[in-house]
Amino acid sequence: MVVRSISYPNMNRRQILKTGLLTAGLGAATGAIIPAAWSARPARVREHEFIAKPARLALLGEDYPPTEVWAFNNRIPGPIMRATQGDIVRIRFRNRLEQASTIHWHGIRLPNAMDGVPGITQAAVKPGEDFLYEFGLPDAGTYWYHPHVSTYEQVGRGLYGTIVVDEKIPPDVDQDVMWTIADIKLTREATIAPNFKNLHDAAHAGRLGNIVLVNGKKSPEVLEVRAGSRVRLRLLNAASARIFRLKFHGHQPTVVAMDGHPCTPFALTESILFSPGNRIDLILDCTAAPNASFEVEDEFFPAMRNKIGLIRYNSRSAQALRKPFEGLPPNTLFEPVMAGAESVKMILEGGALSNKATREHVWLVNGKGNDHGSHMDSHGGAPHPLYVFEKGCTVRCLIDNRTAWFHPMHFHGVVLRERLPNGSWGPMKDSTLVWPFKTQEIAFVAESPGDWMIHCHVSEHHHSGLMGTFRVADLCKTPAAAKPNVVT
Question: Which of 395, 422, 388 is CA-nearest to residue 334?
Answer without folding.
Answer: 395
